[in-house]
Structures
1.
Amino acid sequence: MFPGQGAQRPGLGERWREHAAWSVVERAEAILDRSLSALLLDPDAALDRTENAQLTVLLSSLMAWEVVAPVVTTPAAFAGHSLGQITALIAAGVLSFEDGIRLADRRARYTQEAAERHPGAMAALLGATTEQARQACEAAGGPCWMANDNAPGQVVIAGTPAGVEAALERAAAIGVRRTSRLPVDGAFHTPLMEDARIAFTRDLRSVPLAEPAAPVVSNGDGLPWADSEGWRTRLADHLVRPVRWRHSVETMVALGAAELVEVGPGTTLAGLARRIVPATPVRSIDVAPVSSEVYS
């Protein structure tokens, strides 16, 4: 499992800069023809901007995968949360490293531009059901949608600032006791990202895609896919559709995953997985290793 935007934090690269996996950053800099190391090393890097946050999480996850990959033998499936789908497709071999880096860069830029053109907000409804989230959005009186079904009791809504504010008021009225506004600059996975979807669709038309080493679970429908071509549509459409992470995790276990491993910064996905499938062992791998035994 590969994390998405929100897992970033200052200094993510410090633990990796003396490790061989730092070559991931150097290769990405050569592909994009610009410096990226400051995003991972500078404690004052502007990681609140979508275009910076997404590349930071992607590179951090790929460095961890660089070390994990040689000792992974038969994965049941790959999956990534939102942006993490690009990481998952690189890990599964659907995208080459070069094409994956370019696509992630463009995706980050397009969603940043869409957020600037169509200001939005996001908020988590803690302890809420998906039905409560839908009711709150429908009663908002302004553009607002369910954007993430992350786990039991963890649903995210997104829309215009006014729409989200009205939905939060309605949520409180129907019994949602805790809410939390997310520190993001756009309404991701909603129709407010339509400009980004159109631009990303054009880029995806010409990118070579290969069949995956194991099924890749799509956030859009929570289903496993062993094809390649369908990802042109799935990746683009997902920019305007909800993240169905709860369904995605359940699917991985149904495919035979005996353990779920979050590869990349943070422990958010591991925490969600423990709530979704409490009987399945879960762990996170986020650091440069002392030996390969930590991954086996």
2.
Amino acid sequence: MAFLQTLLVVVMFVCLGGVTFAAEAQPPVKLVVGVDEAISRALTRAPELGESQADIDLAETKLKEAGGYRFPQIDFLALTGPAPQADKRDFGKADTGYGLSHLTWFASGDVLITQPLYTFGKISESMKAAGFAIEVDRSRKEQRRNEIAQKVREYYYGLLLAREMKGLVEEIQGYLDSARKSTRKLLDEGSPNVDESDLYKLDAFTGEAAKFLNEAERGEQLALAALRARLGLSPVADLDISDEHLLLDDVAVRDLSVYLADAENRRPEYRQLREGIRARAALVEAAQAKFYPDIFLGAFYSAAYSPGRDKINNPYVVDTLFRHNWGGVALGVKWHLDFGITAAKVAAEQAQYQRLLMTQEYASINIPLQVRKYQLELVEAQKSAENMKIAWTNARKWTVTAVANFDFGIGPARDIFEGLQNYARMKGAYYQSIYNFQVAQANLLLATAQTPGEK
């Protein structure tokens, strides 16, 4: 029986261990994302947005702080300690002394309640400024979201560009390998169309192609690493993109006035400036209000007790320190006056206000210029890609024809070299134009504050 129990334990251990080893042996799940999903993932993991949200939370606490000044404030002071004894029958006699035998103790408490009634705008303008500051931080967070989306698009299409260039170099290497075999065959046959120098040229081109292949692979790895980091993944995470080729989107470029209207209505920088100017104007008003007093309603109560001192019931003689009991309500005015300090603070707030006005004027000039620049880049890249597609298609026909003629021994090797050079250059330019188109489109989305997925 004991043997069976031991055997059962061993079997369970092996089974559980097998499950554990099987779980550990499972390969990590590969993550494949499209550009929109990549943007969505980046936005949910971006630490910059967490910082922006913290700024919003901080601005909201400042609004609560400013609003708190509307309500009563209570000050309480409590004291306890030694006090000299005093008997009311000794009133008018000489001091009996402060020796230890003449000491007793006392306890006192003072409460002051003040309720602001009118502050000439100190509270209300501070609340306005804090409210506008919240909108500024919210707009800044939206701006960061748009910038993150633009960067993800740039990394995504940069990865596609690197892979297309890598494929192009591999295609060129295939042509070179084929030409080398044909050259060697023709040399063996004694063809007059080739000589040993053609092999040297082919080897030189092959070495250069290998160099470009290494650069393309390095670009691919860098773009993939940047995309991993932007998505909040580990450097060794198994990540890939769903698109296999860099394609030219069928996008109708809209009129400049449409893009400018979108930028003016949706660009968070405009909203930041508008709300920031309103906040600064409110701060100027709040600073100017400090030239005027605060009117408040006050209530106070004070009490003190000492067992070794008699209470004196005389309205003209009051024991203000050790034994008393009084309170009341009063209307008060608090007015702080200085010589230049408040005026300097007002001038500082006005300077900040004027600075924002100049920033707004600068933005009104340069943001439309930026939008125009990206629209022109989009149009240029689109036309360039269309033209280069025609160019590389014909260059490929040229190359194929040159290779075929060379294989048949009726064409010089020079035609292959020229054809491959132009084919590689034109098709590379074609892919570069598509990449430029995608980047210009991403920049235009950023400049017009369109959300991910909008075109």
3.
Amino acid sequence: MASLRKELKIRTIFNLLGPLVNPLQPTGQVLGVCDCTLVDKFAQALCQLGLHRAIVVHGREQLDEAGLADVNDLAIISEGKVNAIALSAQDLGINPAPTSALKGGNVQENAQILKEVLQGGGTQAQRDVVALNAALAFFVGEAIPGESNIETFSKGVSLAQIILSSGEPWKKLEQLAQFLSN
């Protein structure tokens, strides 16, 4: 199914349904949507699925994740309630950057970018967008205490930046790959 979606080169209903029918039934989730009109709808769906904590995110630069160039629309689900907020990189002390600063290339180029960022390298924009999205995941996973506000997400960004700078994420990815190959 994934190869068919890639071949079509357009988004389909399966891009939207996949995260909602996760057989693992997570208690938390960060879910990106490509259209701002879907943020609240997906938040309500996640509430009905009984997720303890989740975030639905749409980057206004037409991203299905948080971006650096424009405001990000978030619907934050916590204990059955939805709180909608708009969040920009600047709100968290991150310098804005155009989407073009994040553009990858072919599979090999993207793999190299990923490796560099997870080893503490890459461009500032690449590290910042990873830190921003990691902060959302940290909140959902309760790795950072607090309410869904700028201060909490700022702490998450700082934590992600420290972790990325250490190069440890790459080591963990290598350990996971080794574990899966055995």
